[in-house]
Structure formats: C-alpha cells, structure tokens
Amino acid sequence: METQTQHKITIENRTKTQITDVVEVKSATEKVVVLLLSKGAMQITGENLHINKLSIEEKVLLLDGTVTELKYTENTKTKSFFKKLFK
After folding, report:
1. Staple 67 to which of 30, 46, 75, 82, CB 3.0 to 4.6 Å?
2. How confident is the model at residue 36, as a pLDDT?
3. Burial of 75 (0-12, 13-18, 19+ CB in 10 A)
4. What are phi and psi of 84, to 5 degrees?
5. Cβ neighbours, 10 Å, residue 64
6. At 76, is the pLDDT very low, low, confident or very high (cuts 50, 70, 90)?
7. How far apart are CA 5 and CA 22, in angstroms?
8. pLDDT at 73
9. Could you give the count of Cα atoms lying within 13 Å of 50 in the half-sphere of its Cβ?
10. What is this structure's pTM?
C-alpha cells in the first residue's frame, strides 16, 4: 500500500513558491507550469516563472517568479479516442 504525502503550498511575497506532493512536471514555460500531483493536476500561471528545484524523490518543487493564479483539476488522465467519440 502506497503512503500518501501531504500536499502543501507556501508562497512568499508572490515570488517564491514551494509545493509538496509533486509527482511530475507536465510542462513549464515562463507563464504557465503544469504539475501532476498525487490526486490530480495543478496549473500555475504567472510571470517569469522558473523551476528552481525539483525533487521527485522528496515530491517537492521550488518555483521562482510572480504567481497570479493556481488552478486544480481532479483527473489528469487523457481519455482514449473511443471514449471521446462515444461519450
């Protein structure tokens, strides 16, 4: 049985962000970072975003840059072609 880590976000002055329970970084640009967490995904929007540290073993991400929005999604699995066709 897999042990679950606690998900926590710490933002200092909107410019330094620490996020725990990070499983994978799906994509990252200076304006948008998309993360896969244990229970879904998170999209971070902002300016001059830069991943300062990523430790998959520790499930921690440190992000520099101005954060303007955080958005969660529950299901990150891509639907198959047939599921999309017959929904």
Report:
1. 46
2. 95
3. exposed
4. -65, -40
5. 15
6. very low
7. 9
8. 82
9. 5
10. 0.78
Buried b / exposed e along 45-62 (16+ C-beta atoms within 10 A): ebeebeeeebeeeebbbe
**Region of residue 13 (left: phi > 0; alpha: psi -120 to 50; beta: else):** left
| pLDDT tens string 15-72 | 999 999 999 999 999 999 999 998 899 999 999 999 999 999 999 999 999 999 999 9
Amino acid at 63: L
Which residues face 44 on adjacent strands? 33, 70
82: phi then psi, degrees, rounded to nearest 5: -70, -35
